[in-house]
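Ticket opened by: R.M.
Priority: normal
Category: complex prediction / small molecule

The reporter submitted a protein together with S-adenosylmethionine and asked that the result be attached to this ticket for the collaborator who will pick it up next week. Submitted input follows.
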Amino acid sequence: MNKSWRTYLLWFAQEHTEFRFAEIKSLLSLLKIEMKFIEEPKDIEPYWIVQFNSESDVKLLASRSVSLRNCLELWAHAKTIPDLHNKLKNYPINSLKPYFQPNKSFKIEVETFCRHFTQKEKVNKLETFDYLPLCGPVNLNNPDITLQYIEYYGTRANDPPELPYDVFFGRWVSSGLRQLIKKLSLKTRKFIGNTSMDAQLSLLMANQAKIKVGDIVLDPFVGSGSLLVAAAQFGGYVLGTDIDYLMLHGRTRPSRIKQKVREQDESIRANMQQYNLGHRYLDVLVNDFSVPFWKDEFKFDAIITDPPYGIREATEKIGTTKQNYKVKEEHLSTHVPAKIDYGISNIYRDLLLFAAKHLKVGGCVVCWFPVFREDYNEKCLPSHPCFTLTGNCEQGLSKVTSRRLLTFEKIREPTAEELQFFESEISDFRERYYIAREETRKDRRMKEAKTRQENREKYEKTNNN
Ligand SMILES: C[S@@+](CC[C@H](N)C(=O)[O-])C[C@H]1O[C@@H](n2cnc3c(N)ncnc32)[C@H](O)[C@@H]1O
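Result attached by the on-call engineer:
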């Protein structure tokens, strides 16, 4: 069948820009949409010029994307304003006719990216399009057609050029899901913890995991359940586990500065109800991930998680360093098991082994992985023969550390051997973090001692004189 490709402008938010490509790639695969680049996208630019073969595809993509602000059907794109007008005047008028009808109300918006103009200046810009054969009534609140003129002045807001780098004109088709970020904001969420993931990143993770209506989704390090909120928002039925009984019961110390004690009904379930997602909540259970309790044959559609890095919260599992330790019969009922360190490499190894067993083929594991920037190379990432790494985006945490959002897609079921063990050189961030912190502190102490010594010498010199 012949496909009629049309050109669209996708305009993205300039926030978490590293995640844009991975998000769209996952959504195209989830929604089975074809998209072609007309221009190679550049990381710093907030726009892509692409082609789709149906407008419903563009709308579908926008209905799930968190990175996307707006999509326009692109009628003209140029490097200069006169050239844009020339191109627009030459756009095949037949394809515009449906929009230029007496019964079609319209409005034209003027957007200037990275350079401010007064309302009057914007109106002057708008009037330069008076040759367009628009014959319907103007309607600023709810028009049938919204046209947009965009002047792009680069990304250096403090030092914009006199003239725009790029200018665009097109018909607005759809907006992305940016409003969800506000709706699910942690600021207004009933129950949060110290390491709650913000709404935007949680939604991006759910999109990376290609969650669709009816999926069963697990977060095995669930904490306050932020990732489950995002998964449920996209139709997942959600389950979580965590080693921390107090966290799951909303009994940890409050995370909001002004709050003295937790309210009675703070819980992950209450969060779900807050967003009318109660029907998507299955349960959360106390469980040490190193000893999972799921039936062998139980399968999840997706796993999204943010395991502990051992910096803001401990990486622990149940165990003891004592040899042949046995709890006495009389202590069994009140026994609280001891915990030992759960090294980062073991956490990620367990995560992929667990997913090899419990994830459906085609399902995704989406997780954060902390790295020391200087040491980073792809070889130090977790890997398993049943998974392919389909996404790997960096979010900087400090000058020297970052975390990477990894997406693993399961490509096949494991062999019996692959359920037990696999070779993977996973780097241990925590060890490296503490060594580097000690080095930084040592450096600082030496610098301070040197400054003190220099000051002392200066003081003595002045006094001797
Ligand atoms: C980074 S936090 C997760 C935060 C969560 N994404 C949220 O939005 O609140 C990591 C969680 O892993 C839990 N955890 C640590 N060790 C664990 C273990 N061995 N088994 C299960 N959960 C564990 C911690 O209690 C903590 O809640």
